[in-house]
## 1
Amino acid sequence: EILYDVEAGVSAMAKYLNIEKVDAVVISDGMTAVTGSVAGDNQVKLKDYSTGEVYTLGCENPLVSDYLGMRIDGYIHTDRITGENTLVHFEKKQTVNVTEILSDDIISTRSGSIEYETDKNSGKTKTASFSSDGATVMFNGVKTAVYSPSDLKPSSGKVRLVDNNGDNRAEYVFVYEYTGLVIVDRVSTTDEFVGSKLRAMDNIDYSESSNSRFFIMKNGDAITLEDLKQNDVINVAKSNKAVDGKALYYLFVSSETL
């Protein structure tokens, strides 16, 4: 049996593992930011939910991009020698409600709300609400202050709403409008590109010179470009302008063939 002598008010994680738990919102994932400046490569920025303090941390887990704008329990490890702070684990707070709506299911959009069908052609609808003047709205990773309700229904894509405090009014709205379709022919790790079966102009260059950042989701998991397989189908959502000097690519991957 191992006994731990822990001081009052100090957790075992903090004393023995040098890990601190924080209640915070992910405000930058190293690709873009919902507020403030963009974190660097392999970094993340968290904003303490109570104090507003901002932490800039190392983080090499690409899945953190799926938590952008989300309130989390974050676990920060501080290296005793270098003093470097790293986000080693994170999980969604129980108060958080995330709603994802496919563009085909959207019935109408208004200032502060989106009405959508819960089951295709069922006639059953719900309304997702957000603050029309207080919510942060992002289009393909770009924060946008001026938009119309019609912009919230992409011609092809999806909308994600993040409600952090459980009041049924989202603080963050992420609109992903698909700008291209790629069926993977091959992935060249030597030349750093993904070849498309459809058109050569749709090839994805991920070399350093492309000045691009990528976030790739497949079956609910974040993957790398090298993980793509032949015949994977990719819905591409590309930012309409650079963020921190980089073009942003959101790749939503399916193994279903067309």
Note: The chain has one helix and 20 strands.
## 2
Amino acid sequence: YEEESPQAVRQEETSSPVRKGSVTGRELAKVSQSARRFLLDVSNSLAHSMPFEVDVSMTGWIFDQEVAANGKYYQMGQGTQKSSLVLEFANKSNPVLIHQLCDGKIVFKLQKFSDSGLVDRKDSLEFVNLDELRASMADTTSAMVPTGWVASGGIACTMRHLSAAFDFEEKKQQANGDVVLRGVLNAETIAQLTGKALTTEEPAWASLPSHFPHSVEITFGVNSTLSYVPRRMSFSRFSNLGSKSAKKELKLINIDF
């Protein structure tokens, strides 16, 4: 599936639509389960699709600096976990290219650095066994990084991670047929990541590392072969931590397909 990627925008604050006090806990659970089923259906469809390749555009914000990259995503599909993600950074920062390749058992990560960078760094090649990664994630959810999800099993794997780690609102149908899902990191995942017991109080957002997303918005487009496919994933962090009013969100990373 191919679609022109939206223009990158600077980091900005938006009102969080999640955590509506007028909705009961039972209703929230039912809505979240419906969204979870939708995500798993999309994941299953992608995992068993025919091979395909799409353009990828990524924009992130690190220490108030915008970082942009473009590249290609390819997956074998057909029940395998074979995929490839190549990102080239438009601002010539270090690294200038990242290639993450998954053969179904091992994830390889190649980083190529610029010769003209401020810091002299050599190209590197790393790899991790997926079985070891899953065991690690079972204990600490250590791969809570969006690009890591895409690399360690493809977009289908990413959808499964999102369905488990976030509580979602009811999906919203757009006039053009797209579907939008919005969610926040659930209490179980936060407790697992921070090592703090589950409580009924406001989650310990401040205890999460700065690269961990607090919320996500996913836009799905209609595809003639795969029904729904992700077009954009936007990850954000809450800015006014501890406030019980409507939260503000600072954009963390956007990934467009």
Note: DSSP finds five helices and 13 strands in the chain.
## 3
Amino acid sequence: IVLADESFVLNGDRLPAQLDRFLRRMEAVFGWPKGSTKGKAFIDLNEAMGYVRTRKPAFVVLPPKQFMQAHKAAGLDPLGTAILLDLYDTKEVHYYGVARSSSTINEHVHMTPGLRLAVPGYDDLQWVNVLFDGTLPATTHFKYVPATDDAGAIAEVEAGRADFAMIGERAFRKIKPRVAEGGDLKVVFGTPPIPPSVFAATKWSKPADRKKVAEKITDLCDGEGGNMCSQMGILYIMEPLKDGYTNWAWKYDRYVLR
């Protein structure tokens, strides 16, 4: 299994031991032989995606963007929805466009060609296309400003090198006080709800293993597993929000990139 999320950075040097306990819990819940389950946890999402492509794991826990990017090639079948500890109060996430309050930019960014957009992973323009629901020619509508992460995208706006930044739920919560009335930032765009991280089987998983996981997935972080999961950074795992995953994956596959 591959688990990937930027929030795992909070685990520090405890991450390997916490991952090991998570794997042993999987074995206990799913009835697999002790010590038979291998896993790797990633903070760097690009590194995680490369590992999935080359090492072909049976199961993955991925954020929504990486799910969309990998679901077709890896044959991802959502078996559960993972609610991470720092996003404990939501079963959906959003992406937000944020600009300086002093700017003249408004919520019509999709109708204003030529704006400078700072967005992490801007090299995947199909992702930008999907966030704007296919309503604009993503290849030419914006002038893209490179950013390594959400914080970097906001910094580009603060420095005046970008007109607005596209950031995720976690980053938005950190700067939320700044978009309140009188703050130095404002929201100029928001996506519809997107389901959070997915626990999915890949096309390389065995049918029998997939069946066991699907039957017992909600038990993983229940009872004595609760403390172990929370130490890993996962609050609980619920039944998959399949319609949501299917809808966003369909958009990623079918929207024509213009």
Note: The two ends are 35 Å apart (CA to CA).
